[in-house]
Prior knowledge:
By secondary structure, this protein is mostly beta strands. The chain folds into four domains: about 5-290, no CATH class; about 305-390, Immunoglobulins (Immunoglobulin-like), CATH 2.60.40.10; about 390-570, Galactose-binding domain-like (Jelly Rolls, Sandwich); about 580-635, Immunoglobulins (Immunoglobulin-like), CATH 2.60.40.10.
Amino acid sequence: MPNNFFMQLWGRLSVALAFLIAGLAARATPVIGPWQPLFKGVDYSVSTNLPSGGEFPNLAVVHAFRVDLTDPDIRLLTTPRTSNYLAGDRETGGLTVSDFLRTHQLQAAINANFFGPSDYYLPAGTPMDVYGLDVSEGVVVSAQDGPSFSAAFLFDTNNQATVIHTNWPPASLNGIHTAVSGNYPLVVAGRNIVNQGNAREVDPRTVFGLSQDRHFLYLVGIDGRQPGYSIGSNDYESAAWLILLGAYDGINVDGGGSTTLVIEDSTGAAVRLNKSSAVADSGRERTVGSHLGVFAKPLPGFINDVVALADDTTATITWTTLEAATSEVEYGLTTDFGNSTGVQSEPVTDHLVQLTGLTAATGYYFRVISATTQQYVSANYFFVTTNYVTTNRVFDITNSWKYTTTNLNGVSWSGTNYTDSAWSGPGPGLLWVDTRIPPKPEVQPKSTQLPVNPNNNGFPYVTYYFRTRFVLTNIVQGGSLAFSGYIDDGAVFYLNGTEIYRLRVPTNQVASTLATGFPCNGDATCLDSFTIPISSLTNLVLGENVLAAEVHNYNAQSPDVTFGLSLDLIEPIVRTARIDVSYSGNTITLGWDASGFVLQSADSLEGSWSDVQGTVASPFTVELSESNRYYRLRK
C-alpha cells in the first residue's frame, strides 16, 4: 500500500480535484490541477472539466507526469528486446505497466507504442510485436518499417529530445538512446492540428508531449469509458489537453484500456494513479507490449539516501541527514513494524545500523528515525533477505507427460510400480482442452490438445490424470523442490505414490469431484507456485522418481482445462568467513569478506562469548587495551 507520503499526496490531490469540479460548475472550462512533486524531476497533476459543449464537450479526468529532461538524474527506459527476439513478430515480452515498473525498478511508467496481438490479458512474457520505432538503451527494438505509426519522440543519452511528426522515410538513429512512437501527431509547433469535426471516437487516451524548449516531457493518461467519472476524449480534446499542460508538440500513442500510469512507492510496490477502464471492467491491468519508464531520485529532505543491504539473517541500513542526528531503525514483517534497534544517541550525519536475527528469504518493512531538537521519520521502505542457494532446473514447463481420462477411482495409479503404457502421450506441456470457438489464446505454449468427453455434450472431462518421471543425481538436506505451473482449475500432486500438495481440490476426491476454485479470473494466465522442503519428502529418492497429478475442472460445463508444470531443485550454499586483522598505532581493524555473520567477543578463548553491541560492520575498529580480547564470527 502507499506510504504516508503518497496518502498525503492523494489527500491533497483529492481536495484539489473536488475544488476544480466545484469551480467548473460555474465556469464550465477545464482547469489544470497543481503540479505535485513525486520524485526529483518528476511532477504529477490531475485535471478535469465539466462538459462545456465547446472545445471540451466530454467529461474527462486527465492524469499527467511532467518529466524534467534537464535533470541529470532522470533516465528513460522503453521496453527492451525479449530474449527470443524476432523483428516484426517477437520483439518484446508483454507485461502490465505495474510489472514493467517492478521488473526494472523504475519510479514512474506508462504504456507507449501500439502493439499486437490485441488480446489484452495474456501471461507475462508473451511475445509482442511493437508498431513503429522503439529504441531501448541504444538498441533498436522495433524499426520504423512504413508510414504507419510514424509520429516519434527520440532522445539521446542526455535526454535531448527530437520530434519527428512523420518518421518516413525513417530518420537516422545515430546517437539515439531512447525512442517511442505513436500513430499520428496531435500538436505541432503549439497548434492543435486535429479537425474538430473529424476527431475520431471518444476513448481513454495516452498522449505524449514536449515543451517548446524541450525542457519537459509530458506523459498523459486520460481516463474514459466510466460514466459519471470520466468519459474520455477524442483527438481534438487530447491535443487541447496537451497544450493546456504545456506541450508544444504532441503525439497519440496506444490508449483505451491500456492507458495506465504507475509509480513506485518507497517500499518498491507499484501504485496505479489513474483509473484504467480495463481495471474497472475486469479488475486486471492489461498486458501490453510497449512501455515508457522513468528512473528518478527521491525528493530531498532531512533524511536522504536510505539504503538497505540485506543478507540472509542480517541487514545493514544506511542513510544521511542534513545535520548530525541520532539513529534508529524500526522494522518488521508489516508496516506495524514491532521491532526497533533502539536509539544510537551519538549524533552523526552518516548513519549505519545493523539488523540481526532476521529470517532468510523474507520480506521486511522498515523506516529510519533521526532526531536533533525534533524528530524526523522517513517513509516506509522494504527489503527481502537473501537465501544462499543454487537453483537447478529439473524440467521445464514444456515437460512431457503421459495422460488419461479413464476413471481411476480406487486405483493406485500415482506410484512407481503402476504401468501407464496404455495411457496417451507422452505429450509436451502445456496440455490443454478448450471448447470455446475460437479457443482463448491466453495460455501459451499450447502444445498438446487433450480429448473432450463425448458423454458430456463435448465439454472437457471433470478430471484428467498425468504422470512423468524425473531423475535426481544429488539430494542435499536443507534443500527444497520448487514447482511452478499453469493449472486450470485445481490439482492434487503425488511423488512416488504419496500426496505432496493439494491445490483447490477438496479431500477424499474422486473422478467426479469438482475443483473448489480457479486461477486468476478463470483462465490459467498466472502461475501457481509452491515449494516443499526436501526434509518433508521422505519418499524422494536418488535416481528416478515419479511425479503424478490429477487436474479437476471447476464446473462440469466449464469449457477448458490446462496443465503444465516446471520443477526446480533448490540447494543451500555452505558459506564460510574469516577475520583479517590489521593495526595502526593503538587501533586494530577487523575485516571479513562475507555478510550474514555477527561479530562476537570474549575475554578468553574458553570464556563466555557475546555479540558486540552497537554499530557493527566490516571493517570494525577497536582500541588496543592492556587486557586480551578475542573476536570471532558466528552465523
